Amino acid sequence: MALTSLLRHQRRELAMKLVKRELRTSPVHSLTGLPEPEIRTLYRMQHDRSPPSGPMPSASSFFSSRKNQAEVTLFGALYRHLGGKRIHRQLSADILMKAHDLYRAVHPDDGGGKGLDFTDAWVIARDLKSGATRFLPCRQCGLDYLIADHVDIPPSCPFCFFRRLRKQKEGR
Q1: Are 46 and 16 in contact (CB under 8 A)?
Q2: pTM for the model
Q3: Phi, psi of 78 (to 5 degrees)
Q4: Strand positions, DSSP E, 67-162
Q5: Cβ–Cβ < 8 Å for 63, 81
Q6: 127 and 120 Cβ atoms separated by less than 8 Å
Q7: pLDDT in tens, 53-68
């Protein structure tokens, strides 16, 4: 079925917004439906280099430490706040961009590559939708935190972990 020219223009415009944020080709394809060769061309035009290749990570790869878990939870909380219950049914590019913009306002990129990039944010949103990543309420502080399947750290609140760590340091 051929896309109407208006729909095609809207999808291409969305693809350009996503490519500018350096989202990898396969997620741009899944969000826009545009052919991957076209997306790769847009990426090369925008960034003067080919898009990254290779398999997409799972959100569980971001849970290598409590600090990383806190970062993922921060983004996830912003995404959930903006998207509500819809985030478990669909992945919205607009909500994803707004949540990542808020995340970057709290955690600006200082050029050192710290924090979550836009592809990382997409992975977290994708895994929230599939259920591979989910929120649990902390029994101690009451905050929700993210956990993921197949991670090495036990499922517990990263914020309480850092609170205990700070208290230990202050007690010395």
Answers
A1: yes
A2: 0.89
A3: -65, -45
A4: 133-137, 144-148
A5: no
A6: no
A7: 889 888 888 898 899 9
